[in-house]
Amino acid sequence: MPDIVAAGPAPHQILSRITVRTRGPGLTDLTARMAEALRAGGAGAGLATLFVRHTSASLTLQENASPEVRDDLVDALDRLAPRGAGWRHDLEGPDDMPAHIKTMLTGVSLSIPVAEGAALLGTWQAVYLMEHRDRPHEREVVLHFIGTCATPA
């Protein structure tokens, strides 16, 4: 169950933290956890913003059908910001600066419209946290919803 940090009256707001344990480079699907936070917080119609609180992980909206897409995205980012390219910043290892560049390229926040308590994602879309570091990490994503409260059935 998501950690609901705050919920308020009209305009209805939800502030929720989603903790993600990563296994190293790759994409972790957050779609179901976002949906649960919206449902648990009583979201109606409005806008959900997701924000990752890190400089070496990012968020993206991507295809959810073919796992090869996710692997290709990781490979493409590795080609754009390779380890061992002579980066000056390497305090935490050779993956440190490339991770910051990948985060800058992909972004740390998403805004997603919500109607009837559900994110209005396309058929093949899912929300992913992208881990850019080699080691596993615990990442925190903040979800903020502002809009209407769900109408009781």
UniProtKB/TrEMBL annotation:
SUPFAM superfamilies: YjbQ-like. InterPro entries: UPF0047_YjbQ-like (IPR001602), YjbQ-like_sf (IPR035917). Gene3D superfamilies: YjbQ-like. Belongs to the UPF0047 family. This is Secondary thiamine-phosphate synthase enzyme. It comes from Methylopila jiangsuensis.
